[in-house]
Amino acid sequence: MRYWQLMLMSLAGGLIASAVVGADPVDYLTQVKPILATKCYACHGALKQEAEFRLDTRAFLLSTGSHVFVPGDSHNSPILLRVSATGDERMPPEGEGAPLTAAEIETLRQWIDQGAQAPDEPPPADPREHWSFKNPRRPIIPAEFHHPESANPIDAFIAEGYQKQNLRPVELAEKRELLRRLYIDLIGLPPTRQQLSDFLADESVNAYEKIVEQLLSSPAYAERWGRHWMDVWRYTDWYGLEEQVRYSQKHIWRWRDWILQSLNEDKPYSQMVVEMLAGDEIAPTDPNVVRATGFLARNYFIFNRTTWLDTTVEHTSKAFLGLTLNCAKCHDHKYDPLSQVDYYRMRAVFEPHQVRLDPVPGETDLDVNGLPRAFDNDLDTPTYIFLRGDEKNPDTTRPIGPGTPAVLSRQDFLPAPINLPAEAYSPELQEFALKDHLAKAGRNIESLRQTLDAAQKQLAQLQNAALDLAANPSIEGANAESPVGAAAAGNSASTTPGEQPTTKTPTVSEAGAAVAVAEKQLAAAQLHPKVLQASYLADVTKAHAPASEKLTELVRSAASLAREYELAQAEAALAQAEQQQPAPSDEAAIKKAMEAVTAAKTKRDEAQTAVGMPGETYPSLYVTRRAANGMIDEETPRHGPYSKISSGRRTALAQWIASRENPLTARVAVNHIWLRHFGQPLVESVDDFGLRAPRPPHQALLDWLSVEFMNNHWSMKHLHRLIVCSRTYRLRSSLLGADPATRRADPENHYYWHHRSTRMESQVVRDSMLQLAGIINLAHGGPNLPTSQESEQFRRTLYFTHASDDRGKFTVMFDDADILACYRRRESIIPQQALALANSKLAMTMSQKIASELQVALGDVDDDTFINTAFETILLLEPTSDERIACRTMLQQTKALLGNEAENLTKDRARQNLVHALLNHNDFITIR
Amino acid sequence: MSPNNTDQANSMTLPRRTFLTSMSGGLAGIALSSLLHSDEARANSSGWRPPTGQPHFAPKAKNVIWLFMRGGLSHMESFDPKPALNQYAGKSISETPWKHVQDRDKLKRLRVVAVQQDTQRNQLYPLQVGYRKYGQSGIEVSDFFPNIGNCVDDLAIVRSMWTTDDNHGAQIQFQSGRHMLDGFFPTIGAWVSYGLGSLNDNLPRFITMGPRFFDHGEAHYLGPAHDPVALTIDPQNPLPFAKPELQLSHGEQQLEFSLVNQLNQLKAKQYPDDPALLARMKSYELAFRMQRALPSAVDFSEESVKTKEMYGIGNPVTEPFGMQLLAARRFVERGVRFVQIMHGDGAAGAWDAHGGLKSNHTQNSAQVDLPTAGLLCDLKQRGLLKDTVVIFATEFGRTPGTQGGTGRDHHPFGFSVWMAGAGIQSGMVHGATDELGFHAEEHPHYVTDIHATLMHLLGLDARQLEVPGHKRLEIDFGQPITQILA
User: If one looks up domain B63-233+298-484 in CATH, what number appears?
Assistant: First the structure.
């Protein structure tokens, strides 16, 4: 404020307003306001009113008087000086926005000089009053609009829109169209011919509802809707360089399986949110819950912790809250009442968390199998605001505590730290870990025993041969030329002349040394299980009880066994060193071997001494691995034990998100579900419910559904059922015969007067072809499958690897989910899609299979019967006569083209081609 | 050829002519390569509209050929001679009069990705190659590039580029303007595809050849329609699914396509004004034509022996790159907007000469020098250079100091690129690094200045292309390098 006054003084007097000559009148609303809106409102608007003035209506502009500008006098208008200034005086300041262009400044100047005319406008509302920031209240169902045949509240809300907008909806869809829509919508697979004919034959009033129940209770429902949520929650498999994980985590499919299982069980959405954000805190020892934190593990990014946390903050906010909190990273949000502090409060929630792989029963190698999960480990790491978002420039004077955005917070954010059970921070204490390691040690003993057996056998053979040779130098097969004889005689370098050298046969003394080594190794290995057991026992006791005599005893016993084991290992190592017998001519090698023996002896002697003074150290099991923090992770250990306390911050955040008092959570989820049923959302910007999202035309419906959702335990199946059983959902998609006035009034179908045709998502395209071909493998869950197998393995597409450097070649053509963010699939139409359906091995193979299935099912039939059935199979329709004629002609022409082959071969081939053409039909890939 | 854009689905009408007879010529005003429903919906509710495909102002260029040396070409051994390196060879930077180049504040642009120990390369390494003056302009070019040297009078060399990533994420940064740690953003090729209509609907607008720097898209929020189409120079199979993967004769396929078209036309009667249906019909038409146009574009049988020689085709060293460049010429001739050619295999890129720089650059330059010069001459003799901009770039330069005694490390503070062709001044040098080749000192340019220069030449205002919900930063736009504009 003071600054403006000073500047005004410096400008006062002497300056003459420039005459405005010949300039066209500048229009405030179209020319000036947009400049002010983009450059000034963020700080001088309804949201912030910095320096106590705002520029968002002329009334406000004028009320600040000549502090900002003087109508008719641009020279005396400080605003003009400030926007054309450089350096610190410039508005908007560096980092807050780009400077105005010369043309924009000129527009402002002319407008001021022309008298700064502007129409009266009501002041913009307080952003805190934004519709989506207010809790949804259950609206009264406008029952007077109920359709006589529907008691579904959705229809009443929609009908109210028709009435008010004077729109006339189209008719209901026919049964065939509806059944295909419903199947693909709920389970992602088209119905079979049998399912179609059953439905057509079922004339009961609830025929449709029966199918709805059947589909919702099928595991295929979870695979269909699980994939939708995998989009929203950004499922991606790991990528890296060779074995180094750089992004996401290995075995992240465990989170995918949690999603599917949760949907199958109809787990409350609110519960899902809590488990994904804080499953490790609410059920620390239950892997079935902990795996939900794959949602967080998926954000792992080796190169940069800030990028990792940024994506966590951004997508937690977008996915669950529809908030673009990410826009407040470098400065306060430009549109929404979200401050930079809000951003870092959210970061602080996640600041302590890390990602690790825990073991799963039956496997000790974490690269082969494991459980990726989140956990708190850095409880003392402070969170600082990065000035202008620059991580090199933290404001260390002010640590930021965890919290939720102030505008939405109804109460204090009070995380309660959680004391974790020992099995949670020391996963090696789980019984299966010991069992698996004992089994592994057992396998090692077994393998060493075999080695010893082999070594002993060889030694015995050689000794016998040597005895025979000594007794009777001339016997057949034992002369000095034979390998065994030669070896026994002490000449190990023999090969049969004229042949490839065979495996070198050892001498008797070498074989003896090998036996000694194997014996020692076996002896060591046999001690290992005892060490494992004793160490485990000591660790478990230590974890669960305070110091006691018994514990001391167990520790000493474990240490004692460990020393014996170490001695046995040292003996084996010594035997191994002594086994080395370099050629007598290689002096350097001999020297090296002798040194190795000396070193091994020293170690053995040390181990021997240690056995007498075992101390209290013993090797704990290492079964878990924290993800590396950066390319060079010098923090040790990565194998735990980890923090015994979890901060409780994520639980507090999750409970706040999943609360009925949160105005956004239910609405955002309902909108996502609605979008995927109707192909259009109730709120257009599905990931932004902030101020740029205007009040939707159907807010009452959205709010009613949101409250209904919450009142029914956040049950998704309840919502699906309500939606697909509505009349609105069952409207036809064709506009043929639609009311022309309605078409003109609402061409975008904002009021749902018809159903919108959509294109199959990438996964549905492939799955549908497999289903029609009758070869789909409906096995559920498990590790991700290699994309190279997409034409050979007939599992559903969601089970294939989905990573930024590895996508199915076919699937990726159809707007597959973007790895980085996919709140809504795109529907592009590009020629590569046509090429994929026309030329891919997948589509061609499926055509052949569908055609031969039909041949088998139909037997020897004429072309028309084949055409009818093929149409019904692939499109679920009966062909019109024009369509049948076109198909018949194609079959005839193809047969003519293939003329010189055998007749039934050309017939089969032509029919395959027909099926292939139908898979390329627009209405195969389209859901009507 | 006239530019026509895509996103005009609502104005489309059903073609009266039958499907297979409409093979010749472009189809005016048809939404072929992309029809994004979601964009359309947003367009209607917010007032925002996708670009029209028309330039915003009079363009000076129609096409771009973008050559990119993966791994980091040494500026000091290519286009930016630094005799001081010979003079002070073996000395530490702090022993030279230019020790200030390592002042802390001069290095702060750097954003390290992978922290390594001791990345400063202090011991100056002499030039590994000689330089000669070429042409009327007398500009010096290293002996690794004698043929490009002979074209120097057509080039505008920019010796003052800088970037911020000291690792090979800088390859992405050079194309998208953003450091890898910021996430992934549309590349310049995707923006050109998005902003400009196609000149030939039978071919993709944005083609890429050679090794990819990352195996995911480049268009990101602009949508997959603006991702580059990755081609190989194989007339039999230039792109994925370009021909049936199982046996199917052309005649059979023609009958299939014809049936698809008839059935879709019949369907259109039941679904009047279904823009997706119409667009899909068009996409099949284009796919069918692309199937034929693409193989013929990469079929060089009609090229003369002399032309092939210009590109080094026939010599195993130059042939792979030469084939891609000849294809590039044939693509721009046919109206493809943006042809991107990446050179140098391997995870980091072949030019990444941490050790053995001399043999590395000898080998790599031998692969690209002659074909690149051949491309310039060929474009020129055919009159194509007046409509086409060629750019020769790399992700960063290399350190003036040595790494391990035979190589140079990554160097983001200063490096060189050149441009030639439509709207570009010929035979000039712009900008300079300091005596050691360390910092871009005179007229420093961040990588997006190259983007801005291209957008300017193509008649596009990048700010008008901004997509709602995807605010771009000032630095993303860059400034055109006006000094090199003709």
Answer: 3.40.720
